[in-house]
# Entry
Amino acid sequence: MAAVRRHRREQGGAGRAGPQRRRHGRGEPVGRDPAQRHPADRQPARCILQSVDLRGSVLSGADITDGDLTSSNLRRADLSTAKLTNTRLAGIDLAGASLRGAAMEGTDLRGANLLDADIASTDLSMTTGLIQSQVNKARPNVHTVLPPGLRRPAIE
# Structure
């Protein structure tokens, strides 16, 4: 009997565990490896955490690509080497946070509080909404790359 079910599955036919059965209402066929899905079906989940308190959180290396953390509190959070590509950080509190080495292409930093934020070795050249007063309050180093028109403050 098991051989018949296995044969049906290999042939794409119906059976108790055939591809037509769905698991947990997720719409993913039973027995189908998610890694084998068609590339168009593989969509990363969006992280939407607006106005949340994540003070002191350790998010080092986290993938928050295309996320929305608008108006959240990430004071003293560790976001070093995090993937923040195309993430909305508008109005966020990043005071004392570490963004060292974070991927920030297309990241929206409008109105973000960067007071004493560690932006050393971070490429901010493709961010949006970043202004000189934010950079002046942060802690860059010689490896920090800024958008055109902004300059690194004198390092004391």
In short: The CA atoms of residues 49 and 92 lie 11 Å apart. The domain at 46-156 is CATH 2.160.20.80 (Pectate Lyase C-like).
